[in-house]
Design a protein that fits this description.
This protein has about 525 residues and is mainly beta. The protein is about 5% helix and about 45% strand. It has helices at about 1-15, 20-25, 375-385, and strands at about 50-60, 60-70, 80-85, 95-100, 105-115, 135-140, 145-155, 160, 175-185, 190-195, 200-205, 215-220, 230-240, 245-255, 265-270, 275-280, 285, 295-300, 310-315, 330, 340-345, 350-355, 365-375, 390-400, 405-410, 415-420, 425-430, 445-450, 455-465, 470-475, 480-485, 490-500, 505-510. Strands 23-33-24-29-30-31 form a six-stranded antiparallel beta sheet. A five-stranded mixed beta sheet has the order 4-3-2-1-20, with no helix packed on it. β25 (about 405-410) and β26 (about 415-420) form a beta hairpin. The structure holds beta-D-fructofuranose. Beta-D-fructofuranose (FRU) binds near residues 51, 68, 230 and 296.
Amino acid sequence: MATIMKKIALFSFLTFSGVLTLALSAVAQPSSYDQPWRPQYHFTPPQNFMNDPNGTVFYKGEYHLFYQHNPEGNVWGHMSWGHAVSTDLVHWQNLPVAIPEDPNYMIYSGSAVVDKNNSSGLCKNPDPHDRSCLVAIYTAAFKDRQKQHIAFSNDRGRTWTNYSGNPVADVDAPDFRDPNVFWYEPQHKWVMVTVLADERTLLLFDSPDLKHWTKRSTFGPSGDAAGQWECPDLIELPVEGTNEKRWVLIINRNPGAPAGGTGVRYLIGKFDGTKFTSEIPDSPVLWADWGKDFYATNTWNDMPATDSRRVWIGWFSNWQYANVEPTVLWRGGLSVPRTLMLRRFHDGLRLVQKPVHEMENLRHEKFRAANGSVADINRRIAEAGTMGEVYELEAELETGQATEIGFRLRKGKDVETLVGINTTRSEVFVDKTRSGETSFSKDFPGRHAATIENTGRIKLHLFVDRSSVEVFVNDGERVLSERIYPPAGSDQIELYANGAGGRVISLAIWELDSVWK
Ligand code: FRU
């Protein structure tokens, strides 16, 4: 709540200052993407501030990525939808601001859909065989009210027009936001999930045409009573290795996440077209990511017909310090896109995430070894001169008698980021206490952990990208996403083990191409 109050104060101060014209004329500048800490294969805006990914949708060969963006500066404000497109989810082309703020309201988070059959009547496609267009559904954040608006594009997302009949949904509330819309084929209708953020309540609507919405059900509060609910999503996911499917309700929570501040929780259950019913206990709350920096997720709508994946992406930050992270020119970025699935564990179904396979196209192998002691493999890493700031690493480790085993990454003089397994605590963790620049917020540094059942033998899949580390454990069973700000040149990679017997079953390291060159 404090965060939103801060945002609203900034809004009333900034809105009526002629920014509309500026925002409209703001065109993404080419950028070298080579400033200190600038990620090389993650999405970051060419300049200025970003937070949530918005409107992720695939249409006519392009993955669209919109995002909460301040075209005017490097802190939150003037919220507009920034825009980029990609043909592979990995290489992005920056486009001009898609939906700029209005003098009376900012453009908050939301979603986008392909209106295949022109249900809205807003598509003007002259092709008689394809009447489709793109429709975006976003929150118009007025000074003290939030309402859902739509905008449409008849030129593959390049230009957008606000619908003249806006708002399309309004419940006379100050915290009614983040509409996530999808087509529900069994009942041939659109479904929208939104939240009343402070009440921790989900509101579910449906519509025949994206313009007229009827409220069908509410869900919540559920779980602990902390924090706001933001950016909901309702998706159907396969259970790995079976023909089963379940509906998963995603709720972004601000604050109250395990690592502190913002985080992503989920529930698993049923959806009948009008109502979500959870099939899991209210407690413990299930979390998608155990690191400090993964929030405000958005899943791609309308994936290509031949692609059954459900892919999401999250904001790579935390509201505790999003406005003060130590980058200049730009601030904020996104995680690697991840494929979602459910996997059955002895205590029930859980969400698992894997980086999209397209990431593999960036690889250049740097190092490979198998079956050696920690000391042995460390010697080989050093002999090969393997180090880096932009790479991917896959390892399978056997802990033996070691109480802790793992990696020291981005190691340099007096700095290192630890990624390890602690057998005493049955945890996988990232410790960024000594990762480099942390002084900008007391909430930033720390050791963040997730429990795992079997610490005997573990697979770690790491992505390091100048100012970030993402850790996928045991094929996505646990994920920890962390920003780090080490001094340039802190590029050593080292294994370590506390106690005897830790072994490396296998280790591979790839340098990854920059996607901005
Ligand atoms: C989540 C959020 C959303 C809101 C947007 C405003 O990070 O607070 O609830 O729509 O950011 O920028």
